Amino acid sequence: xxxxxxxxxxxxxxxxxxxxxxxxxxxxxxxxxxxxxxxxxxxxxxxxxxxxxxxxxxxxxxxxxxxxxxxxxxxxxxxxxxxxxxxxxxxxxxxxxxxxxxxxxxxxxxxxxxxxxxxxxxxxxxxxxxxxxxxxxxxxxxxxxxxxxxxxxxxxxxxxxxxxxxxxxxxxxxxxxxxxxxxxxxxxxxxxxxxxxxxxxxxxxxxxxxxxxxxxxxxxxxxxxxxxxxxxxxxxxxxxxxxxxxxxxxxxxxxxxxxxxxxxxxxxxxxxxxxxxxxxxxxxxxxxxxxxxxxxxxxxxxxxxxxxxxxxxxxxxxxxxxxxxxxxxxxxxxxxxxxxxxxxxxxxxxxxxxxxxxxxxxxxxxxxxxxxxxxxxxxxxxxxxxxxxxxxxxxxxxxxxxxxxxxxxxxxxxxxxxxxxxxxxxxxxxxxxxxxxxxxxxxxxxxxxxxxxxxxxxxxxxxxxxxxxxxxxxxxxxxxxxxxxxxxxxxxxxxxxxxxxxxxxxxxxxxxxxxxxxxxxxxxxxxxxxxxxxxxxxxxxxxxxxxxxxxxxxxxxxxxxxxxxxxxxxxxxxxxxxxxxxxxxxxxxxxxxxxxxxxxxxxxxxxxxxxxxxxxxxxxxxxxxxxxxxxxxxxxxxxxxxxxxxxxxxxxxxxxxxxxxxxxxxxxxxx
Length: 671
Prior knowledge:
Layout: H1 3-32, H2 43-51, H3 63-75, E1 79-84, H4 90-107, H5 109-122, E2 125-134, E3 142-148, E4 155-157, E5 171-178, H6 180-186, E6 208-225, E7 231-233, E8 242-256, E9 261-267, E10 274-278, E11 280-284, E12 287-291, H7 298-317, E13 323-324, H8 334-338, E14 362-363, H9 371-388, H10 404-417, H11 419-443, E15 448-453, E16 459-464, E17 483-488, H12 493-510, H13 515-524, H14 531-539, H15 555-598, H16 604-659, H17 663-670
Antiparallel strand pairs: 1-17, 2-3, 2-10, 4-5, 5-6, 6-7, 6-8, 8-9, 11-12, 13-14, 15-16
């Protein structure tokens, strides 16, 4: 046996002992919610009642609370948002977020989250995991996948882990049961020996248990800062401004049997692949306790079953006859008395078999249940609600709340009482996001085309690491680190679409004129056949400035365009006025010319006067021409000035758009 295998077995023995009481309690909780007849009864009480033939009823009240919390959680699945840190690229962060959305879609991550969350509510412990696989059978490219863990009791975290998500674990185990034949096919020339014989994993007789063993390997290295600002691993012969020692973490994956190391590979993330989703966790005397939703309600449920069984037992023992009569009184009218509701008149004999007169048959009171038993069963229901923290309003039942506000507040109290389950899931998905961001530079490390899904659920392909598709402005480098994640709490994307459709429909109903502004958004969020075609058609009737998807509508640009248009209109009006004035002057000149020709034959004394008038007219024409040229020059200069101002303003706006950085980044730069 190798040292690695020996060490792994020792660690598993420690981990399995640590998790045994937690897993045992979790399995009891899950079994309590099963359909087995003995699930919600103490073994001794069940045997005693069955031995004497007394009723044993199971009227489950807890499953409705579990379903309420689990289904509410399914509707509130959070979304991973990628945020750049330091000098990382904002656009690349958006691309990474779209790729994570595609990973979730391809992996059917909702199922993995729902399964883990369901187990955390029912038993207190659930898991999902991150892994990687080849894109296809004929490809060397890999992709990340989020995997569902069907059985949480096959997973064992490092017993020294304290974090609610298990991210601080130094090792993990995942057990798997395979048949002996499958083992021999997968691992030729290896002995079919189980890794362990003592675990909570369910397996058939003869199955072989193998284990995936994940182990952190830490390597220390020294980083140095060069004089030109570069950070690199310290090399001999180079003087650095400053140095410091860091730890480089790698995760190794081993597949182990009880006798051999079957496989050995590297995991692409510097975190453990398992992500825990715990219920209510607390530490008591240094020991971890994890509780499910129903852990403290099980006794109340058992009492409710007991009182209902006793109520049924008492009803069975009480007489069920409706009337008490002397022998011989009703024998001749048996059919009528056996079904009195069908007989309008009931007859009887007024004497007994001895001939003595007797009164009429007497109606018996219906079976009675002691008030204490009824009160005890109602008290058990109240105890269930109190121990869970959810009341009638949380289940949609009518309670003593009257107003809608009171109902809503009681419902919010129920959600608050169980919010730690949702919060723990949010923390686990946050950890998953960090793992994916950590693994993307190692998986998506070659020039390639990948698929992304944006917030509007639009699927597109995009080139990365040097590949540029025709519709791309540039490529995106995913091999660089420098990104962090946060969680956006919310509801499922399908529900968001439905809510968006309802909102737009309500707005358009109140203000129909807005259909010409956002009609395409209304149909875009509809799910019926042809909705997208209607959205595309509506775009043709909407002002283009509302449809500019490349950049937001800029009011300054629009204002400057209006100024230019007003200037052009003013110039046109001035030109029309000048042309009208020139035409009037031309008409005046023609009129004077005619007069001059008419007076040509007049006295020579008048010739000089006419010449003088003509000279005055010519001077007036020259002055008008000069005024016209001056005004035209002024208007042309004004037009050039307006055009120059508009051009400079638009250029400044475009430059600002190109270099604009997010507010968070600017704040960091100023600091």
